[in-house]
């Protein structure tokens, strides 16, 4: 078997733990990274959307990446998010990730306006010039750019662009991307399309709810990778309701609540993200209880 590349496997997009005063709790951050490694996950992504990177100061963001790399054991990947308002900012964060010892970066396209294809290509060339492998991140819901399979094929011509985190929810795109850019790894970018994408050939999962259910999530991922639908589908069915929260606007609050319900520390979010509305809190709790029962029964 060939060695796993740093962006492959179950790479968990980690939240940033905040204390009650909303300062970053670096001790809890590092403990969480070590715990995920012990539970069988393959890596982490700090400073992604789930990490509330937009609400971190520059100093905090750099310190989160450094603390994550410091806590990661040997063989455990760190793939920081380098999203920024412009290419200069994204390149800066890629340079910071390289200096900290990260293994690859997760890069959104320009996300403040509907960039032309030529601008998107220039953006990824700028980030890739830093020298770390680049995982493109397609999230057309949170950005104004959709990395369509056709655009991705052009992006993938840039040396150093190695994969895409596919968050569109359209599982048909996997096949089109593989046709147009067969050298590009496709990674499941949303928890609730994990089985559909991995069974069809996705080589990794940049994940949300493994923050609360790491060992069970890795077990599900491995079953999907093996094509063992008889074992994977019943488990996926039980986890799918909680996984669906990863694709909703309240995903940060939902995942932090899921962590609390699993006995971990989730903690608050920074404004403008507030607490979940009571109906959502009740539903997340119900869905998480179903997932925890599946874990106990597995």
Mean pLDDT: 96
Radius of gyration: 18 Å
Query: What is the tally of beta strands?
Result: 8
Largest beta-sheet details: 8 strands, parallel
Strand content: 5-15%
Shape: globular
Kindly describe this structure.
Keywords: Lyase. This is Dihydrodipicolinate synthase family protein. Belongs to the DapA family. This protein is of the alpha/beta class. Helix content is 44%, strand content 11%. The chain contains 11 helices and 8 strands. It has helices at 26-38, 58-71, 87-100, 117-128, 149-155, 173-180, 194-199, 214-225, 229-243, 251-261, 278-297; strands at 9-13, 43-45, 77-78, 105-107, 134-138, 161-166, 185-188, 204-207. It has an 8-stranded parallel beta sheet with strand order 3-2-1-8-7-6-5-4. Helix 6 (173-180) links the parallel strand 6 and strand 7. Helix 5 (149-155) packs parallel to helix 6 (173-180). It starts with 8 loop residues before the first strand and ends with a helix. The model has no long low-confidence stretch (mean pLDDT 96).
């Amino acid at each position: 078997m060939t060695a796993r590349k740093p962006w492959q496997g179950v790479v968990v997009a980690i939240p940033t733990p905040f204390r009650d005063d909303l300062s970053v709790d670096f001790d809890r951050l590092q403990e969480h990274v070590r715990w995920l490694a012990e539970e069988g996950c393959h890596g982490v992504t700090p400073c992604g959307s789930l990490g509330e990177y937009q609400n971190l100061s520059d100093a905090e963001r750099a310190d989160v990446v450094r603390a994550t790399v410091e806590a990661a054991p040997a063989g455990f990947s760190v793939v920081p998010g380098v999203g920024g308002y412009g290419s200069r900012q994204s390149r800066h964060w890629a340079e910071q990730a390289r200096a900290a010892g990260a293994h690859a970066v997760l890069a959104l396209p320009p996300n403040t306006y509907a960039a032309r294809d030529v601008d998107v290509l220039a953006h990824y060339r700028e980030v890739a010039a830093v020298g770390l492998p680049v995982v493109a991140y397609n999230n057309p819901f949170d950005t104004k750019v959709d990395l369509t399979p056709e655009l991705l094929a052009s992006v993938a011509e840039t040396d150093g662009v190695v994969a895409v985190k596919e968050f569109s929810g359209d599982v048909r795109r996997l096949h089109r991307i593989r046709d147009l850019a067969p050298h590009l790894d496709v990674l499941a970018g949303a928890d609730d399309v994990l089985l559909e994408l991995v069974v069809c050939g996705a080589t990794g999962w940049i994940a949300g709810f493994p923050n609360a259910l790491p060992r069970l999530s890795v077990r599900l991922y491995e079953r999907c990778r093996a094509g063992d639908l008889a074992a994977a589908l019943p488990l996926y069915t039980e986890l799918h309701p909680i996984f669906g929260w990863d694709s909703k606007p309240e995903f940060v609050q939902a995942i932090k609540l899921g962590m609390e319900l699993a006995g971990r520390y989730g903690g608050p979010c920074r404004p403008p993200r507030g607490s979940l509305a009571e109906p959502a809190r009740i539903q997340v709790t119900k869905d998480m209880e179903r997932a925890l029962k599946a874990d106990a029964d597995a």
